[in-house]
User: What shape does this take?
Amino acid sequence: MNSKLRIIGGVAAGMSAAAKARRVNPELDIKVFTDDQYISYSACGLPYYIGDVIKSSKQLIARTVEHFAGQGTPVLTRTRAIDIKADSKLIMLEDLTTNRYFEEEYDRLIIASGARPVFPPLEGIHLKGIFTLRNIQDSDAIKNFLREYQPSKAVIVGAGYIGLEMIENLLVHGCQVSVIEKAPHILPSMDSDIADVVSNYLNSRGIEVRTGEPVTAFKGTDTVKEVMVGRNSLPADMVIISIGVIPNSEIAARADIELGSSNAIRVNEKMETSQPDVYAAGDCTVVRHIVSGQEMYIPMGTTANKQGRIAGENAAGGNAAFTGVLGTGISKILDMEVSRTGLCEQECQNLGIEYISHTIKSRTRVPYYPDAGRIHVKLIVDKNSRRLLGGQIAGYPGSGKRIDTIASALTMNSRIDDLINMDLAYSPPFSPLWDPVLTAINKF
Amino acid sequence: MNSKLRIIGGVAAGMSAAAKARRVNPELDIKVFTDDQYISYSACGLPYYIGDVIKSSKQLIARTVEHFAGQGTPVLTRTRAIDIKADSKLIMLEDLTTNRYFEEEYDRLIIASGARPVFPPLEGIHLKGIFTLRNIQDSDAIKNFLREYQPSKAVIVGAGYIGLEMIENLLVHGCQVSVIEKAPHILPSMDSDIADVVSNYLNSRGIEVRTGEPVTAFKGTDTVKEVMVGRNSLPADMVIISIGVIPNSEIAARADIELGSSNAIRVNEKMETSQPDVYAAGDCTVVRHIVSGQEMYIPMGTTANKQGRIAGENAAGGNAAFTGVLGTGISKILDMEVSRTGLCEQECQNLGIEYISHTIKSRTRVPYYPDAGRIHVKLIVDKNSRRLLGGQIAGYPGSGKRIDTIASALTMNSRIDDLINMDLAYSPPFSPLWDPVLTAINKF
Assistant: This one.
């Protein structure tokens, strides 16, 4: 009889795992369970779906249930995994349509249960017009609300990537947009000097940005009308809460699977959990940070895909390893691009690393070429070993993806001195003669 | 008395050397000689000056004679260096305005005499309307001709970067443009599969591209009227010849300074020539290719600047080293971007390296995001060591600068297996979930 691979979760990690396991072993008995009705969708595309940049939610779906069925991989949607009995290798499930409970045997199991948005237990949190954004249903609810209520004032709570990406996608609906961030500056995963570039830009575009104070309550009768920030009140016809996610790891914890950083499922580089034959991948797991060597929780679509592939390969009999992440991220905020990789100053301080940092200002193109926008590049270097630790970029179009040059150097564990003569591409429409990244490198 | 640093050449390498030497030693007696009337101009910007993308030639000039004078560094323009007497540490010079000859002593000398365009001794080459493009005077002559003669048919001879960059800058003047390349494909420094992407694009834009045949003659009475390609004739009211450059190394050769590849001046990593106290930098010198370790002639503005800095630093008493180049290049050809770094297939073959190569097709952004253009990424890997050897990219806007991710990996001497999980930046407006470079890496 064929070995049974069961997968819990049908988005990035789960479906990458299913696809890879199928490629590795065409005969494997694979089945996927997800409580969602949609599978394999691009969560990172949701803001653009709300902003009508993407017209149909179908475009967000990479591969359908039918596609997987055609590969001999049934995907059971609206089917929630309730418990795992690791000793007897069983999963307890609920069919959300019929409310029928059933169980499934597995030989190997991949948990790719993802994460869910933090939804703070504040006064008024259940008022109409307050949303989080995680899946297609959330997006459809937001789109319906925008259409029906035509809110004139929208407040975004939380100024991470998704929160800031929502700005342009609410502006197109005619909303006036404000952003509230409880951390001292927006983009809390980046340093304040780079975040301030974005903050100043947002102010210049008429976006109110409030930092350093948490939201304390929401007011309104049926629909939200005010967001309370300490003693102050901001008028709001609509609120998007985007203050991070927490891993869906409870099912693993109940099965005595070890958790790690931020209560995410602890996995090794093969994506194995502490339970034999149980793998985990994606936003429900920890990752190893390549620069610090530390276990961290940094949920990202790219990582979920890579981990899913590796879990799928190994669960199907392969021997792949995931080396870890750099915490690379990028975001388009109206005409501003912001990106990061490696460690930021705060992380270095937390790790007790002595570092040097320099931030340079340059242009995306030769200054005499049209649309040569301002770009800021920050690099952080270990003071003693002179090893490159991280980089951050903020600037106008053409800025953000330059972070990959730094990510590539971090992947190879570069010392800053290895990079001073780097032969980066130059032509007036693409770069100043000294690429901004190279200018930053030469500051050390 | 102060040590005398004399510099021959006033463009990228020469003026970088002068600026750096001044920073290293504010007291140094520095003097620069150039036969040109302009200094410190961006040669790579010339096509865009012709295309009126850049309105004034002044914008192309990074630093003026007055700027250097203000730093205590006189720059003598229209002053040609005729000979170097290395034994007596003298330079023989001619003032091109007064035709007066004079000599100058030096303690240390930097030769940054640049390169000049190849001007083939063909029948009809001196007809009016036939141009090369190397400096501001050339550009002004082309602009004047365009204004006065309003040519309707322009032929570009040579399909390297500059030749192809001229296409859009002639189209704006209402010319119908054809390109002739004697090599089997355009962009001869790249592989045919990547070059064909550009070639097909040019055809789709109505640009006639002829490859594999050299120009044999130009016909016309006063002004050029035809370009002869074997037995065929192409009508032409104007011709741009852009078939490469040769180093201005004769002055060095006469001073018994050793030449290397392509008769360029041989320098070590300190930019020292074979003559004591004589340095050289920029388009008149050889470079070491980091991947092959070979001495090559690859004149580039970026390299000239880096070498100039290093020559300036060392001539002023410092101890800097130039590690070499990757042959990185990039070009915008209408809406197509093309770039390269490291070795191409032909170079691997010439070096007797056994290699594997893969070319992938992807998109510049997530396919559902607007303007997700086609991108082709080619990587070449050593078959035995699995070391990354080179990369080439062709595609729509957002493609070209991705080459820097590969250049960074090459700088660090990466094996392809080091890179398979690289944490590159992803968000729908910037990249598919798997960045095209990462997709290519994962083909090996």
Remarks:
- The CA atoms of residues 148 and 444 of chain A lie 55 Å apart.
